[in-house]
Design a protein that fits this description.
By secondary structure, the protein is α/β, with parallel strands linked by helices. It folds into two domains: 8-181, Flavin prenyltransferase-like (Rossmann fold, 3-Layer(aba) Sandwich), CATH 3.40.50.1950; 190-400, CoaB-like (Rossmann fold, 3-Layer(aba) Sandwich). It has 14 helices and 19 strands. It has helices spanning 19-31, 50-57, 68-73, 76-82, 93-101, 107-114, 127-131, 133-144, 170-181, 215-226, 254-265, 307-312, 330-340, 381-400; strands at 8-13, 35-40, 85-91, 119-123, 148-149, 153-156, 162-166, 190-195, 200-203, 206-208, 230-235, 247-250, 270-273, 280-282, 301-303, 319-326, 345-350, 362-369, 372-380. The strands form five sheets. It has an eight-stranded mixed beta sheet with strand order 12-11-8-13-16-17-18-19, sandwiched between helices. A five-stranded parallel beta sheet has the order 2-1-3-4-5, with helices on both faces. Ligand PMT is lined by residues 194, 196, 212-217, 254, 273-277, 279, 304, 306-308, 322-325, 337, 349, 351, 357-359. Residues 194, 196, 212-217, 254, 273-277, 279, 304, 306-308, 322-325, 337, 349, 351, 357-359 line the site of ligand PMT.
């Protein structure tokens, strides 16, 4: 977790039920070392008393544009100058509309206009209100004015609806603030990643696939995003939620994965092939469900294109990281693939044995590059992914310097 000491956060709270989550956010920001001042709109005070934030922030809460006492403590222009970041959380649909239109009829809106520092908003509203074209237009226009949009998340809402519009949790907003102040080792880089299995159709209802759950690849996508990369994840069919802040491209077959990757590869700085791609596909998938007839049936399989080898062979190629899933002689096979596919790095894992590799929440890697190697784990896939991304950042910097 990064250190927010000496960072001054002005937290604006508008009138939504998610205002209660901002109390926790104040606590977390202060725990991370930030100095926090809170500004509330009149509507916000209908949900939570200013005293709550005053007790948590250790400072008077600013509520009124014409509050003489507050003005003498720090007037609104001074407050706008004081902060390193103005974060409005929750930001209601009404507030976002007024902010986009440049209204200044309460203290927080005035601050948004007067603030030269970065301004971030955490939208929070009913899913239908969020989906409404006016809200979407307001958000798009705010983004075009360099307002940072953090969230919203999807899920159950206070009104009983389910959908997109929930404010991010306090801990997620803290992470956004931390990322904002320390952009990460992969900041500015485009990282393309494959994850999960592929499915090769036998007929319209059957397919050939493998045990990949996508957990390793999704953890890598998240770790790379946390290090500031702009991540495109090409994923085979998995039962995992879409990782936040990542462009997700869903595919099914190896050919579809190949097409999706090749579209993005040349524009990417780093490519990590974590998917368990079917080496073979059925030559002629049946048009209709195959009927049970003979005692034995033969399927003619043909080789799929190797996605990683194709990316690595591009003239304008990204830094290429492969995986090797082996059940024996891990090092020998991994080094073979490193060389044959002309890779910058390869992460080898032993699969098919006790509690790691496919499906598991744990993994252990031996990472090789042309003149070095490093063991990663055993640890949770989240931790393994973090360490792998650190290593990728290190090797990428070496390779490009
Ligand atoms: O998804 P999980 O359940 O979390 O499991 C994680 C994992 C075990 C799948 C993962 O850690 C892993 O090892 N992924 C690579 C699996 C694999 O297919 O390895 P391979 O040794 O067969 O392939 C070598 C490399 O070539 C891999 O980077 C693979 O993505 C790539 N490849 C293979 C065939 C092909 N047609 N195209 C490819 O890009």
């Amino acid at each position: 977790m990064s250190d927010l000491s000496n960072k001054k956060i002005l937290l604006g709270i508008t009138g939504g039920i998610a205002a209660y989550k901002s109390a926790e956010l104040v606590r977390l920001l202060i725990k991370a070392g930030a100095e926090v001042r809170v500004v509330m709109t009149p509507a916000a005070q209908e949900f939570v008393q200013p005293l709550t934030y005053q007790a948590l922030s250790g400072h008077r809460v600013y509520v009124d544009l014409f509050d003489a006492e507050a003005e003498s403590a720090m007037d609104h222009i001074e407050l706008a100058r004081w902060c390193d970041l103005l974060l409005v959380a929750p930001a209601t649909a009404d507030f976002l509309g007024k902010m986009n239109a440049g209204y200044a009829d309460n203290l927080l809106l005035t601050l948004c206009l007067a603030c030269k520092q970065p301004v971030a908003v955490a939208p929070a509203m009913n899913q239908q209100m969020y989906a409404n074209a006016s809200t979407q237009q307001n958000l798009a226009q705010l983004a075009a004015k360099n307002v940072l949009l953090w969230g919203p998340a999807e899920g159950e809402q206070a009104c009983g609806d389910v959908g997109q519009g929930r404010m991010l949790e306090a801990v997620q907003l803290l992470q956004e603030v931390e990322r904002h102040f320390s952009p990460g080792r992969l900041a500015g880089l485009r990282l393309l990643l494959t994850a999960g299995p592929t499915r090769e159709a036998i007929d319209p209802v059957r397919y050939i696939s493998n045990r990949s759950s996508g957990k390793m690849g999704y953890a890598i996508a998240d770790a790379a995003r946390r290090q500031g990369a702009s991540v495109t994840l090409v994923s085979g069919p998995v039962a995992l939620p879409a990782p936040q802040g990542v462009k997700l491209v869903n595919v099914e077959s190896a050919q579809q994965m190949y097409d999706a990757v090749m579209q993005e590869a040349e524009a990417s700085d780093v490519f990590i092939a974590c998917a368990a791609v079917s080496d073979y596909r059925v030559d002629q998938a049946a048009e209709h469900k195959m009927k049970k007839s003979a005692d034995t049936v033969s399927l003619q399989l043909v080789l799929n294109a190797d996605i990683l080898a194709a990316v690595s062979a591009l003239e304008k190629r990204p830094f290429c990281v492969g995986f090797a899933a082996e059940t024996r002689d891990v090092e020998k096979y991994a080094l073979g693939k490193l060389q044959q596919k002309n890779l910058d790095m390869i992460a080898a894992n032993l699969v098919g044995e006790g509690g790691q590799g496919f499906e598991s929440d744990f993994n252990q890697l031996e990472v090789f590059w042309p003149d070095g190697r490093q063991a990663v784990g055993p640890a949770s896939k989240t931790e393994v992914a973090k360490q792998l991304i650190d290593l990728v950042a290190e090797r990428y910097t070496c390779a490009r310097s």
